[in-house]
Amino acid sequence: MSRSLVDLLPDNEPLDWNTRMRIAVGAARGLNYLHHEAEPSVIYRDLKSSNILLDEGFYPKLSDFGLAKFGPTGDQSYVATRVMGTHGYCAPEYATTGKLTMRSDIYSFGVVLLELITGRRAYDETRAHDKHLVDWVITYMFIIFPFSPCLITNIFSKFE
User: Fold this and answer.
1) Is 36 helix (H, G, I), strand (E, B) or coil?
2) In CATH, what number is assigned to the domain containing residue 101?
């Protein structure tokens, strides 16, 4: 592995869409393995662009499992734990409750996906405004698609 995804964002030549999707699909497959195929299941807890290593063909591998936790067992839907993770990637519900679920990793994957799509970092201290990528995307999504609040509310209500 020669580099991580963070090494490619945002100052280098943009990746073509096929390469971006190869990276996204590979990271998603890695998470799927941890969540559904590993015994016991594993919640990664630190999915971020610097923990996605890329080989010469831009095939990704997840790295740095130092914060990983075994998933919930039995009837439990979450693992209670001290909040850990990287600013900009941590799921809001995990940050506020300390209840770690596989959805926490899915939120982090969504942030990585936004990084791949936009070429921006999850958190960029150098920006005067819009330091958080997720906030920036939500703000501009409402400007570009004024019907989005209704759509988003409808989408998210199906998952609660």
Assistant:
1) helix
2) 1.10.510.10
Bridge partners of residue 48, in order along the sequence: none
Q: Enter the tokens of residue 6.
A: 């963070």
CA angle 101, 24, 79 (to 5 degrees): 10
CA distances to 48, 54, 89, 107, 112 from 22, rounded to whole Å, are 16, 11, 21, 19, 13
- Give the number of domains in the chain: 1
**What does the pLDDT look like over 3-37, one tens digit per residue?**
777 776 556 677 889 999 999 999 999 999 999 99
What residues act catalytically? Answer: 46
Q: What is the pLDDT of residues 63-106, one digit of tens each?
A: 999 888 898 877 677 677 778 888 899 999 988 988 889 999 99
DSSP state of 121: -
Helix 148-157 with 133-144: angle, nearest 10 deg: 120
Cα–Cα dist 1/111, whole Å: 22
Whether residue 25 lies inside any domain: the answer is yes
Q: Is the pTM of this model over 0.90?
A: no
**Residue at 144 is within a domain:** no
The answer to whether 67 and 86 have CB atoms below 8 angstroms apart is: no
| Residue 80: domain span | 3-124
